[in-house]
Amino acid sequence: MAMSTLSARIGLALRTVLACAAVTLGAGAAQAQVPYKFEYAAKFVCGLAAPPKAAGTLPVAPGYYYTAVNVHSPSTTELNQIEKRFVIALPAENVGRKSGFTQEDLRADDAMEIDCPDIAKHLDVGVVKFAKGFVIIRSTAELDIVAVYTAATSPSGPVVSMTTERVPKRP
Questions:
Q1: DSSP code for 101
Q2: What average pLDDT does range 134-161 have in this prediction?
Q3: Pair 34, 83: CB distance under 8 Å
Q4: What's residue 78's pLDDT?
Q5: pLDDT value at 20 more than 70
Q6: What are the distances in angstroms from CA 26 to CA 21, 29, 82, 140?
């Protein structure tokens, strides 16, 4: 009789654990289903493009390249949920590494900057290493995204080139 009671209790405990696991997994699946309505793709160019060893092998001119992607939530009332992914574009039509998605919440009128050290961290590449690719941003409400690109001849040298580009949402 005691063995039967023990078996019943173990069975009840096991069913309870399985039910809790199902609820937890269901909640995770619900979180993954955020209704992202907008998508943006900002180009990045970061790091030292060293002089080539052979003519014509460098995808950009030698120098130090920097990118800062500024993200602003212009909404005055909505919480804007965003997710970011970073993708490296390799020369010679090769596909590069990509990061996983990271989520952020931007409240009304919040802003953030995504720069080369952030991109290097997400892609697990060194800050000095040269990389180019895209920052992909999905959001639940419209964003203002402006990318700032600068270049210099040395890490502490003056800027020799600067441009800004408003990043449009994809249709």
A1: -
A2: 95
A3: yes
A4: 81
A5: no
A6: 8, 5, 21, 21
